[in-house]
Structures are given as C-alpha cells and as structure tokens.
Design goal:
The protein is α/β, with parallel strands linked by helices. 24% of the residues lie in helices and 32% in strands. It has 5 helices and 12 strands. It has helices at 71-81, 114-126, 148-157, 181-188, 203-215; strands at 2-13, 18-25, 36-40, 46-50, 60-65, 85-92, 105-110, 133-139, 161-167, 177-178, 196-200, 223-224. The model has no long low-confidence stretch (mean pLDDT 93).
Length: 231
C-alpha cells in the first residue's frame, strides 16, 4: 500500500448518479488490476473506492456513485470537489486479477461495482489474454450503462470476450437481457466449476451471488470479491 497526494484533475458526471473522478498521483504508485484505494478525508475517515484504471496509466480513475442522500459517497465527492489535492492510499484489497491463472474468466458487476471489473477487463485486453472472458453488468435502468461504447469496443476487438448487460427494470425500448444479473449467469452456464469469478457490487448482492454460484458448481477458491471479508 502506498500513501500519496494526488491532484484532482477532473470530476464529471457519467450519469445523473455517477461521477468520474480523475486523479494524478505526485509519485509513481503500484497496484494490481481489481484493487482499490482509500480516499482520506481525515486520518481516521477513509473511504474505499475501486480503481477503474489499470497499472501504468498516468491517472487513477474512480467512478463514484450513489444517491444525493447517500452521505458516504456524497461526502467523498464533496471532499474531491472542494480540494485541488487529496490524499489516497493505493494498492489495497485481495480480489485482484490472478494473472497467472489459465482458467476462463467471469466478471460480474452490479451498479458501480463495474469500476472493479472494468479495471480487470482492460488489464486482460492489455495482456493479450486469449481465453474466454465473460463480462456481466447488472443495472437497475439502462441509462446507468455509462461505459457501453468502451465495452462494446472491448468485446468486438477480441472474439473470445463476451459482454452481457442486464437491466433489472427495463423500458419498452430495451432489447437486451432483463432481470437480475446473477440469474442471467445461472441461465447461461450449466456449471461454473472451471471459471475464475470476480464479483463486485453491494454487499447483499455479493452474498446472494456467492451462494448461488457455489450451488452452480463454482469453486470458492476461484471466486474473488473484497466483500467476502465482510459477509
């Protein structure tokens, strides 16, 4: 873990409830795809957020979501908006991408848990991984799919990579999958025993996904989520 001061370069909305934050560290930082950082509001108050960028990039990208009334993310965003420089701790978490594994990969995100799987997906492409990779992203409404152009490019560039957005409450115009994202996975895979599975989203969702996937044959030692330490 590295503690570093970062310049706040940009804060812009991705949707009505999600903001992209770009930070430039004052010194080189090291982390693994899928790890998170802590935004230090004070020495005692530290807020964890997944890093959406990958190692080697100049900037650290965060995707901070939450309702206006959500003090946890709202206070973090206010701190970023009111300070030209902030302190972060980078390189935290044990649910990083296992680059040495040769298993096919399943990435599953709920909501802004997407930033976690986005980092891993970019790292997979940058490493030239040539084995099946499935990315499932579940959101409540389709306008929350804020990175679809980038994901579609990712999937179309590499024929082994498959993208599956799933909308829980779709409009009549939605032509893709609907319902709960983990149910879409259960419908698509007879068994999950061969896969390395990376999961991010609200803690209650992650718990449900873990239990359902284990029943579908997933191996606990091949499932990764930092939420597992708390549920």
């Amino acid at each position: 873990m590295t503690k570093v001061i970062c310049t706040v370069d940009k804060i812009q909305p991705l949707t009505s409830g999600v903001h992209q934050v770009l930070l430039t560290p004052q010194q080189k930082v090291e982390f693994k795809p899928g790890q998170y950082l802590q935004l230090c509001l004070t020495d005692e108050d530290k807020r964890p957020f997944s890093v959406a960028s990958i190692p080697g990039q100049t900037q650290l990208e965060l995707q901070i979501g939450g309702a206006v009334a959500d003090q946890y993310s709202g206070q973090a965003l206010a701190h970023l908006q009111s300070n030209a420089q902030v302190t972060v701790e980078v390189g935290l978490g044990q649910a990083f991408w296992r680059e040495d594994s040769h298993n096919p990969i399943l990435l599953l995100a709920g909501g802004t848990g997407f930033s976690y799987v986005y980092s891993i997906a970019q790292a997979i492409a940058a490493a030239g991984v040539k084995r099946p990779v499935f990315l499932y992203w579940g959101v409540r409404h389709e306008e929350a799919l804020y990175h679809m152009p980038e994901l579609q490019q990712w999937a179309s560039t590499y024929h082994d990579y498959k993208l599956m957005p799933v909308v829980q409450s779709p409009t009549d115009n939605w032509q893709g999958r609907s319902g709960l994202v983990h149910q879409a996975v259960l419908e698509d895979f007879v068994s999950l025993d061969a896969y390395d599975i990376y999961i991010a989203g609200p803690f209650p969702m992650v718990g449900v996904v873990r239990d359902a996937f284990l029943e579908q044959g997933a191996k606990r030692e091949q499932m990764f989520a930092d939420a597992f330490a708390y549920i």
